[in-house]
Amino acid sequence: MVSPAPSLPKAFSQLSLAEAAELLAARKLPPVESWHPEREGDSAMEIRGDGSWYHEGGRINRPAMVRLFSTILRREADGSHVLITPAEKLGIAVEDTPFRAVEMKSEGEGSARKLVFRLDTDDLVLAGAEHPLSFGSDPENPDPRLHVRGAIGNGLEARIDRALYYELVELALAAGEEPPAIWSNGARFPLVDA
Q: Cα dist. 53→57, 64, 79, 94, 117 in Å?
């Protein structure tokens, strides 16, 4: 489950996993997958590789505006991204991934571990079977990502920041499994995708 947050009630680092779970359960996203408007166009917007949002070349500096737009973002079957409402669908350029995972909470060990990530939009995502982690197939050039929403394999993803990736690697190596893997919410994710 993904939770769009207007703002967190307190700093993510101070939230317990139980409080994070309550926030996840309390919020719902618009049903963008069911919207198929006839009117289409271009939004003149882009999401750059560092996660910053731009409109007509100018950076969008209002976090509330970015959070709002992020709730109506959808990835199309052809891999393109759109901002969608019941009335219109507007293309948006996405340089890398539309989100960045910037903070993480871990509770439990082994297969009982739960990992909750805070995205750069303040959304919370509990990694698991519905929100898998992936690390790419090249151990020399890892590509750490978290599935956020939409169809797995063609949905919206978050790039996992480098510091969080190293933290995940440390947790996986400490568990001593071969090949190294990290667990969350009952799902196992190898550090190198098959």
A: 9, 12, 19, 9, 20
Q: Write the pLDDT tens digit of every residue in 141-157.
A: 999 999 999 998 889 99
Q: What pLDDT was estimated at residue 153?
A: 86
Cβ–Cβ under 8 Å, residues 80 and 141 = no
Distance CA(131)–CA(128), nearest Å, equals 5
Residues 118 and 101 sit within 8 Å (Cβ to Cβ)? yes
Q: Where are the beta strands (DSSP E) in the chain?
A: 2-3, 39-47, 53-55, 58-59, 73-75, 81-84, 88-94, 99-107, 114-119, 124-126, 133-134, 145-149, 156-160, 181-184, 187-190
- Extract the tokens encoding 7: 């703002």
pTM here is 0.86
Please give the structure tokens belonging to residue 16: 């317990």
21 pLDDT higher than 70? no
Burial (CB count <10 Å: 0-12, 13-18, 19+), residue 3: buried
CA atoms within 13 A on the CB side of 55: 9
Gap between the Cα atoms of 154 and 147, Å rounded: 9
Q: How confident is the model at residue 2 (pLDDT cuts 50, 70, 90)?
A: very low
Q: How far apart are CA 78 and CA 172, in angstroms?
A: 34
